[in-house]
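Regression report. Comparing outputs from two consecutive submissions.

Submission 1:
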Amino acid sequence: MTSAFPEPVAEAAMPRFADFEADARARGFDEVAERTWEADTQLGLHGHPFAVEALMVQGELALTIGDDTRVLRRGDRFALAPDQPHAERYGSEGATYWAARRHG
């Protein structure tokens, strides 16, 4: 993915977790997990020591990267470079996404 907010996945094309994981591992990601967040959770500006490519599967996430805030829902994707500053705000029903991480 070259954009922080790649094109969404159409509902009819949503993969199963096993397929998401297999694709991510084939592309060199060394960790793939389902992440679930409680309603109204907020994480201020921070970064991670790994690259991330993620697919929203449930709920809502307002993700801020620089001056760009996007509200992400089922089928939306996001990508973060290692240590890329961002902030997260989860919706009133919480959220779940699948995250592929590449360390090192």
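Submission 2:
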Amino acid sequence: MGTRVRILILFSLFNILFLRFASGITLEEALTRALSVSYTLKEQEEMIKKSRFFYLSTIDPYLPRFDLKGSYARIISPSTYTASSRENYSLCTVISYRIFDGGERYSRRKGAYFSYEKDMEKLKSIRQEVAYIVKKYFYEALGKREIVKTKEESFEKAKKVFELTRGRYEAGIAKKSDVLQAQLRMESALIEYENAKKEYEKSLESLASYLLLDQLQTLHVEGSLEKPDFKMDVNEIIKKALTSKPEILAQKNEIKRLEMAYKEKESSWYPKIDAEIQHQRQDTVFFPKIRSDQFVISFVLPIFDGFGRYYSLKGVKSEISAAKAKLEEMKRETESQIKTAFIEYGMSLRNVELYEKLVEEARVNFEQLLGEYQVGKGDILSLLNSEKDLASAKERYLRSLMEANISLFYLEKVAYLKEY
């Protein structure tokens, strides 16, 4: 018995030190940290910056262009020219503006804008995924924390039964085999208690790793494990998701971007009209003095340059059709995911109710057998089995609560019920 007492003392000291040095974290704090340190979010934020800079750069073709050109030319032949006449210097200043381009500038700018909007929707989707993972890890830790408490309670009950049986044995009422059976159950409960603590530590490690916390830092989760209370018609959920889910909105923006790409390709069939003001100086000296100014309006209409323009349009048109087909598939998949998640959520709530009743029945059975055993009735085996059944029912109940909350989080993710 001395060894078991020492083990109990060590566990008590562990609990005291754990509560003293552990740093508690709530779900809200975990979400806030995850959304601020996630590498995937930081990567997407940089992609958004890139898209935004690219969009800003598309304003340039709408602005006038200013060019300064200079040249030096030396005539090598014929040799009859004088030395001065064989050298020519020129300086030309040109201000140009494109008047018409068939919609090329507009479609390119709008395409860049839709690409930026697509990346913004992707960011929302990633934030939703990060939030789901954090909540999943957090509630796994929360559930396992409560299981630790249940296992500790089970160990205390097994210890009480063992001490009671040992007292009855010393009084000559119980048999030696009864004491051994009670001792075996107590030691088994102690092992389950140890394993539950290890499982809790592993879940905390997963949470700490995802939150980019120091692995040597000990955490514990704060909060209560309760039955989720969410009620909403599945058809309303689907209807809302099909109009607000980031993945679907991102694909719609991709279709719009491709439509702008089609218009950009189509602009190559139209003429390009430009206006220029030129100021030119040309002379045989380094600083030219002979001046000429001109205003030019020019246009270019490609009559034939091969078949590339036609096939480019056909290619983009096929890409648009593919993107539209992908959008419909995403809608179908979203609807299927929501229906499946809704069914699983309903089943998890049903399991919570069933295991809650099972816990109550197992508690009543254990208390009744314990009372009978204390007054000398009943047998030790039935009592130990009832205690074991009670511990198992409590664990299943806690796991059902944990799974019900996680299934709700998954439903929120696939249906985009919450925005982070």
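Expected: both submissions complete independently.
Actual: both completed, but the second showed a warning that disappeared on reload.
Relevant detail on submission 2: The two ends are 54 Å apart (CA to CA).
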